[in-house]
Amino acid sequence: MKLVCFEKAGRRAGVVVADMILDVSSALHCAPVTVEDLFRRGLVPEVQNLADNAAEMDRSHFLPLVETRLHAPVQSPSKIVCLGLNYRGHALEQRKEPPERPLLFAKAPSALAGPYDDIVIRPGVENVDAEAELAVVIGREGTMIPAAEALSHVAGYMAFNDVCARAIQREDKQWFRGKSFDTFAPCGPWIVTANELGDPGALAIRQRLGAVVMQEGTTADMTFGVGAIISFVSSSMTLFPGDIISTGTPAGVGVFRDPPVFLKDGDVVTVEIERIGSIRNRVRAL
Q1: Are residues 200 and 219 in contact, defined by beta-carbon separation less than 8 angstroms?
Q2: Cα–Cα distance between 15 and 2 in angstroms, integer?
Q3: How far is 216 from 150, CA to CA, in rounded Å?
Q4: Alpha carbons within 13 A on the beta-carbon side of 255
Q5: pLDDT tens digits for range 2-44
Q6: How far is it, in rounded angstroms, from Cα 279 to Cα 274?
Q7: What CATH code is assigned to 80-285?
Q8: Residue range 180-201, pLDDT digits in tens
Q9: Domain ranges in the chain?
């Protein structure tokens, strides 16, 4: 099942059925709900039943996917937790050893952007880079979660672009501000539910800048897999439904190329993950 947040007199949850979006609120005859609401209220099984029986439903509950604006699938996570150096190839291109335990940093939730929204570079912000990542969306609250149970807390997965201002990272000597500008976290295009995706441990992942392939790897190159990451993060903080964990990026990012390659006005960045889909964002400098 593919869960989306779409525009219809506000932002609401939907399910992709072929080339249509099933409006969950309309089908359930309830007030508008977000994707996070589905997780928090335990409505996912009911929505799955709607999707399974979509062919029998009134067509007034559907909108054409191609004509509908998609937003970030999750609108208000309590946190966005990201991993640094979690791909062996990405550590190698920096001449660093993979970390002994997950290296965590945060992005502000206000950085979220939709799968086709612009990445906006503000005046004076330099050396902006893109990173293709697999993001995990939490569906069930938990803390101190054993690794063996971690995947049961996953609602699903989506593509994520961890956009960052490298110059600010260097100036600040830490990552939060440079990673958290508005629009620096495009994601989507939908959440593929965990039961549909299955094992996230060997997915092809790719970033293109225009027609040029910048990054091409597989999640099998991650030092820490999804279960280990969730267990580690939850050892120090409670994870809530809708929280996002972005699991790191493969080799090939712009800053470590010779010469470096940074985003500029008019560029188009595409992040694609096998069995999930792709997000495509144009760069716009103010």
Answers
A1: yes
A2: 6
A3: 27
A4: 18
A5: 999 999 999 999 999 999 999 999 999 999 999 999 999 999 9
A6: 12
A7: 3.90.850.10
A8: 999 999 999 999 999 999 999 9
A9: 2-71, 80-285
Residue 198, Cβ density class (10 Å: 0-12 exposed, 13-18 middle, ≥19 buried):
exposed
Q: What are 138's two structure tokens?
A: 């939490």
Q: Which two tokens stand for residue 129?
A: 């880079």
pTM over cut 0.85: yes
Q: Which residue has the tokens 């990451």?
A: 229
> Tokens representing 122?
């503000």
Strands 154-161 and 62-64: unpaired
Task: Give the contacts of 149 (CB within 8 A, at least 6 positions apart).
Answer: none
3-state secondary structure the chain: CEEEEEECCCEEEEEEECCEEEEHHHHHCCCCCCHHHHHHCCCHHHHHHHHHCHHHCCHHHEEEHHHCCEECCCCCCCCEEEEECCEHHHHHHCCCCCCCCCEEEEECHHHEECCCCCEEECCCCCCEECCEEEEEEECCCECCCCHHHHHHHEEEEEEEECCEEHHHHHHHCCCHHHHCCCCCEEEEEEEEEHHHHCCCCCCEEEEEECCEEEEEEEHHHECCCHHHHHHHHHCCCCECCCCEEECCCCCCCHHHCCCCCCCCCCCEEEEEECCCEEEEEEEEEC
Per-residue tokens: 259: 């010469």
Q: Is the peptide bond before 189 cis (omega within 30 degrees of 0)?
A: yes
